[in-house]
Amino acid sequence: MSNPYDHNRPQDRPQGYRPPAPPPGVLPPPQPGQWQQQPPQQWQYPQGQYPQQGQYPQQGQYQQPGQYPQYQQPYYGGPNHFNGFQPQRRRPSAARYIVLGIFALAFIGVTLAVVGSVLTGGSDTTAIPENSGPSIVPTATTKPDKGTAEDYLVNSTLYSAGGLGEVDCPAEKLGDGSLAAQKVYYQKLFKCLNDAWRPALNKIGVNKPDPGLVVFDKPVNTPCGAFKPLSGRVLAFYCYGNQVMYTDVLQMNKAFGPKEDLAYLMTIAHEYGHHIQGVTELFYARAYYLQDHPSQKLESSRRNEVQASCLGGVFSRAVEKSYPFSKRMKEFEFQASHSFGESEDTPADERTHGLASTQGFWIMNGYNIGETKACNTFAAPASLVK
Asked: Are 182 and 311 in contact (CB under 8 A)?
């Protein structure tokens, strides 16, 4: 029987099927144990294996509009497949079916009109403060029903995890920015991310495997699709299907060169933020929420992206002294607000990640507060997620 979602499930493969080895230049992901909730993940591809070329759907052109390079975190899973996350439902809605295509098919870049925030009770016209000094702890202005997706988004236990302390993480040199150099850099930083976040997650009862990491300069197949180096403006992405982070070596080098290492730090810390969203089920709560609120897809995407950036800022605070970049704060602030996100010229109905200034605001807010409570972006006013 064919698979209607073309996700190449194990039971759909012919007898004797054997996937090829990872393509040259790829650092294979580690082999963490499977995270299985009920119902089990029907579409997940086994860790450390790669499908044949063309067997995963390749949606879009892997490109975002706007002036700046983008982070990405493609979704992997079938309709209503939210890793077992089952919040209470207030009421059934025909609109839920509209969003199925969003999560089953689309990886990148969607165009919907910007609307007021449902979660925070509407738009707010407060100006965004200077990026070097934001220190806000967002508080929900609404009281969603207990147990609903809205309640989970604005009252997640993640916001009570606190800070990460000081992490000993001297940076490796990027050298010429080659595959070998970036591997060494990312592997060192990746270990620091795992060591920093693991205690914070354990504190709130989350004991999930560390994510995987792939650094590639050749075409790579993933449960989220097939990607080629320099195929668009994707710097890196996190795939929820196998809980692996992927980084395009050539794109990173093209965007930043080997000298702007703080941009590399922010990129991988941001992608790790998406992993945090996955293991704390914020990602699945948002997917569930959008079933009943499809008109919120664009703004919700921005809230999701800047939350990952804010979590990256929290981690940056933990490694500031050992990395170190204590004496490079002006450079850090500049990279935060000029390296990622969309430009002012990007049409409002195409802003999925937030303006570069918005990204900078939340990176610096996470850094300045230094605790996860700074990253409740689903409770922030709409003016702070433009």
From this structure: no
Contacts of the segment 232-235: beta carbons below 8 A, 24+ positions apart: 232/61, 232/62, 232/63, 232/64, 233/63, 233/64, 233/68, 233/69, 233/70, 234/62, 234/63, 234/64, 234/69, 234/70, 234/72, 234/108, 235/69, 235/70, 235/71, 235/72, 235/267
The DSSP annotation for 146-177 comes to: TTBHHHHHHS-GGGGS--------PPPP-TT-
Give every CB contact of residue 303 below 8 A, 6+ residues apart in sequence.
286, 377, 378, 380, 385
The rounded Cα 12 to chain-centroid distance in angstroms is: 29
What residues does 245 pair with on adjacent strands?
A: 213, 238
And the tokens for 242? 């196998």
* pLDDT one-digit tens code per residue, 325-369: 999 999 999 999 998 888 888 888 888 999 999 999 999 999 999
C-alpha span between 58 and 253 (Å, rounded): 24
Convert the pLDDT of each residue in 161-206 to its tens digit. 999 999 999 999 999 999 999 999 999 999 999 999 999 999 999 9
Residues 34, 47 contacting (CB under 8 angstroms): yes
For the chain, the farthest-separated pair of C-alpha atoms sits apart, in whole angstroms, at 61
Cα(80)–Cα(76) distance, rounded to whole angstroms?
Answer: 11
Range list of H helices, the chain: 100-104, 149-154, 179-203, 249-256, 261-279, 282-292, 297-319, 329-338, 356-369
Task: Return the closest-CA partner of residue 239 out of 24, 17, 2, 29.
Answer: 29
Q: Are 196 and 164 in contact (CB under 8 A)?
A: yes
How far is Cα 121 from Cα 98, in angstroms, rounded to an integer?
Answer: 23
Cβ count near 116 (within 10 Å)? 13
Is pTM beyond 0.85? Reply is no
| Residue type, position 370, single letter | G
**Dist CA 326 CA 200 (whole Å):** 23
Q: Residue 195, SS3?
A: helix
- Would you tell me how many other CB atoms lie within 10 Å of the CB of residue 315? 30
